[in-house]
Write a structure and sequence with these properties.
Two copies of one chain form a homodimer. The first copy, chain A, is of the alpha+beta class and about 350 residues long. In chain A, helix 4 crosses helix 5. The two termini of chain A are about 15 Å apart. At the A-B interface, helix 1, strand 2, strand 3, strand 4 and helix 3 of A face helix 1, strand 2, strand 3, strand 4 and helix 3 of B.
């Protein structure tokens, strides 16, 4: 390391993004909102155009020893759709750029695209561009998604107000437990005498596997909220873990929050797997990441409506900023929420 | 290689893109034009929104032994702006995603962003998003650019008609000669006893170096054409080499073409460097790539107007498709044009 140089791990991903993007002013009338939410927001006529992008790197974001290429393609698209839904928008177009090393064949790339195509079909999204080039090392996937929302309907991270209810869709921690399972079975397979013929036993664990390998974006939740006339005051998707996302909303909205340990939705299979691996279940649900559920806040006046929504849990409430962000445990204690989410920059520096 | 598997090099980049994108229909009303031009075109209100994306990989698209990070950032942005100008549009927003390995520090990334910022300032573009993650190997840069044009003003590759004049801005082959020079000096430096203190002598070669390290997008040409009331019938930017781009326009427009060897604009420094390296000058200009000049066609009736434009050369004309694409040499012979452009996929397979 040269003199006066700062290790990236000392800032973390979000610190680094803050630092390098702070000197970029927005000049164009059509640039409504830049860096700092799930997607950028552009103004074109009577629509707001949403743009989000994700870069997926082999060895960091995925491991081809246990992720089939078709699933990888599907997930690459879904994680971008999820960012658009998290803005209360509808994904419309994607571009896909690939870097492929020489160990990949045309059929491999077709498998990957079969997954992207399936996701596009299911979610009604058009593939409109991209390029493909060589890579000296492994597979690189860059997806950009363009979505739209009616003017004024876009929901940001920054709109939460004290007394708002904090809600989350589905359940948390399952994708992370699915990853733990895949990694364990992969190690067992590597040490097994049966070699390539080794068949891992995933029975009773289908749900956590599917949550890891074939996540869905919560189009249905966004539609249900609209049908019920509920507009969230803030929203984002849970990709890095609930703790990390709660802190993002609190920071962007200048608030604090309280969430209740016993309200965090967790599936039975997630709990069984955490038990098997001797891991703390609540910490898994708080910090696991890759759930692609929606975390959102609604005004307290919407309580009765939200309480009736299937697949939505009210997990806490928004507070004044000076109260900070904390989890209220089953025995009534408060534990400060810290971001221990999945941080690929920190992970790589270890 | 497994059975029934196709090596990617057998299809090439464009063959691969054709094959994997042919099963993606466009479903959304706002998707006007998908894969197959410099940018996708989306319809939003009275504007057409243009989207283009580029993935730049260390060891394939750039070599940090002789490309300063600030220049790399600048160029990463410029190549995307160039794609938007090539659609007759104006770039407005970019997103930047980075994959960085642990040998990079925050200051390195800031250098890269300083170049991106400078390009954004000069071209009036807003940075609106992106993400940063770890990479196990080298630097990965993914840039997506969003631009706009007035409805009906977008220019595609597919509009060329027989008898149209073929025009190109600036001069060709210089960026490629700049790359050859950098690679030669880098080899000399590696073998030199002076080691790190070795100072290459670039005097008299500043232009070709700048064309390689700090290219510009031809915003001025697009503006000049508008001022003079000229709307090209087809247009694209010269990134892979003139031969390759001419074939793209002929294919998309279903035409042939004739260009004249003695009309191809070449700078003096490019000619001197080709002589020094004992390389065929015209082939260098035809296949060099990375010029980021604009190649466009205009109706024959615009001849007198186009002829007067500074920095624009008329190099040939569009023909019926059955005549194919050919270059007319100085001695009057016709040589078929073949795509020998810079093809990163083929290159990596060697």
């Amino acid at each position: 390391m040269e003199n006066n140089q700062t290790e990236i791990s000392s800032l973390g991903e979000f610190g680094l993004i803050d630092r390098i993007t702070k000197d970029f002013p927005l000049r164009n009338e059509s640039s409504k909102k830049g860096v700092g939410d799930d997607a950028a927001v552009l103004n074109f006529g009577d629509k707001e155009v949403l743009v989000t992008t994700d870069l997926l790197l082999e060895g960091i974001h995925f491991d081809l020893r246990y992720v089939p290429l078709k699933h990888l393609g599907y997930k690459s698209a879904i994680v971008n759709f999820s960012d658009i839904y998290a803005m209360n928008g509808t994904p419309k177009q994607i571009t896909v750029s690939l870097g492929v090393s020489s160990r990949f064949t045309v059929e491999h790339i077709e498998e990957l695209y079969a997954g992207i195509r399936l996701a596009c079909e299911i979610y009604g999204v058009d593939l409109v561009g991209g390029d493909t080039s060589a890579s000296v090392t492994g597979l690189v996937i860059s997806v950009t998604c363009i979505g739209e929302s009616e003017k004024g309907e876009t929901v940001f991270r920054s709109g939460a107000k004290p007394t708002d209810l904090i809600c989350v869709s589905g359940d948390l921690g399952a994708a992370y437990m699915g990853l733990q399972l895949l990694e364990r079975e992969n190690q067992v397979a590597a040490q097994s005498k049966e070699g390539k013929d080794f068949q891992p036993d995933f029975s009773g664990k289908e749900y956590i596997l599917e949550r890891q390998l074939k996540p869905e974006a919560r189009k249905d939740i966004v539609a249900m909220l609209k049908e019920n006339g509920i507009k969230p005051t803030s929203m984002m998707d849970v990709s890095d873990g609930l703790s990390s996302e709660l802190l993002h909303i609190c920071k962007a909205s200048d608030t604090g929050c309280r969430i209740y340990e016993d309200k965090i939705p967790i599936d039975y299979q997630t709990a069984v797997m955490a038990e098997e691996l001797n891991m703390n279940l609540v910490m898994t649900a708080m910090n696991g990441g890759e759930d692609y559920e929606l975390l959102f806040t609604v005004p307290l006046t919407e309580h009765d409506k939200v309480e009736k929504l299937k697949g939505v849990s009210i997990i806490g409430y928004v507070t004044e900023p000076n109260l900070g962000a904390a989890m209220v445990t089953r025995d009534g204690n408060e534990i400060p929420i810290t971001a221990q989410g999945w941080n690929s920059l920190a992970a790589s520096q270890q």
